[in-house]
Amino acid sequence: MEEGRFQNGGGLGVKVMTDEQMEMLRKQISVYATICEQLVEMHKVVSAQQDFAGMGLGNPYCDPLLSSAVHKIGSRQRWTPKPAQLQILEQIFEQCNATPGRQKIKDITRELAQHGQISETNVYNWFQNRRARSKRKQSAVVPNNGESEMETDIESLKEKKTRAEDSQPDENTTPMADHMYFNSPDIGFDQLMGKIESPGPGSCIPYWQMEQYDLFG
Amino acid sequence: MEEGRFQNGGGLGVKVMTDEQMEMLRKQISVYATICEQLVEMHKVVSAQQDFAGMGLGNPYCDPLLSSAVHKIGSRQRWTPKPAQLQILEQIFEQCNATPGRQKIKDITRELAQHGQISETNVYNWFQNRRARSKRKQSAVVPNNGESEMETDIESLKEKKTRAEDSQPDENTTPMADHMYFNSPDIGFDQLMGKIESPGPGSCIPYWQMEQYDLFG
DNA sequence: GTGCTATGAATGAATG
DNA sequence: CATTCATTCATAGCAC
């Protein structure tokens, strides 16, 4: 990717990494965490069914320390505007009901920075969301009166399905891989499972494969 | 951690961490890996027993956690890249940091189609977005100082550490624990992952193994 | 502690 | 390409 270069003065006491690398790491850990969770859940279920077995195994997966530690690493906190910042933002939003330009964003960011940590992206997102939600709310309030109105609000966007040929909502729409975000990293999990799951006879479809069959049926 | 994604209002896009922090991280991951291993083993045993015991259990696994990730079955209209597809896309993007030509798009599409429904437009859009966002992030990280800060010394990086993060709520809570930045090769992620992953050889490499970063430089 | 709501963030797609 | 839109995900905060 981009600048992946850093030169930690060779074994100094510090390492450096880019945002992307950081993000990558976070995801990796997140995946790991989730996989563990899923494994644990799965094991619980399976174990429950075997009243006779596995009791001598102890509980290797109940490590509070571990989970707390990982949570810290694997979770991201999101920016929360401070009252002062919010007030300013709202004020600006009132004036120009549109997303400010890049420069404007910079300015706003700089100003808000005086009240607490904030980034341009935060500001950008804020306006994007603010606008989108403001709009949505508005159109939601007028659903029954002008339901036949084609150009007003919601419907106009709903009918945007112009390129039907492009996005087939069918098979590819694997719900499990929903979003590249790994709070539920299904990826890798099935593969992982593939390793431990070797019952042989395809008598039952393991839940981690279910989705492929039960998508629309 | 989140801060990482963007231009931290003027900060540079890198994070730093001490060896100590690194070590801690590594340990945490190590523990996780071990736990995963144990869980896998355990599951193997349990599963095997189940086989003998008469496995017509149907779908014993109904992990609520998992299903939550699988929700919204029939309600997606836009294409969502699957992990496998994403992995490939990222890989390609890494190579040619530019939008592929028409023919290239076709090829890519064909390849990705093996992993799920997809159209050329999807691919095209993906590259457009990927590039635009990558760019934006980059420029945001290096706003006025066209020169890469990384070129400088570790020393300077250390200094910047104070302001290295951007969207933390702020000064308060866990000032440091939240910033466990990783960069070291000391812990081979791929190897670690390989332990629990081990998919078929030719199969796809899970996204978390994408070694797109030259961490070990 | 369970669930709900508001909202920050991520991202596919559309528009200029 | 650069911006913007629409939609969705995930979580902080709060009610119960």
Automatic annotation (TrEMBL), chains A, B:
Residues 155-166 have a biased composition (Basic and acidic residues). Residues 135-179 are annotated as: Disordered. Residues 74-138 bind DNA. Keywords: DNA-binding, Homeobox, Nucleus. It comes from the Eukaryota. It holds the Pfam family Homeodomain. Its main location: nucleus. It is found in: Nucleus. SMART domains: HOX (SM00389). Residues 72-137 form the Homeobox domain. GO terms for molecular function: DNA binding; DNA-binding transcription factor activity. GO terms for cellular component: nucleus. This is Homeodomain protein HB1. It comes from Populus tomentosa (Chinese white poplar).
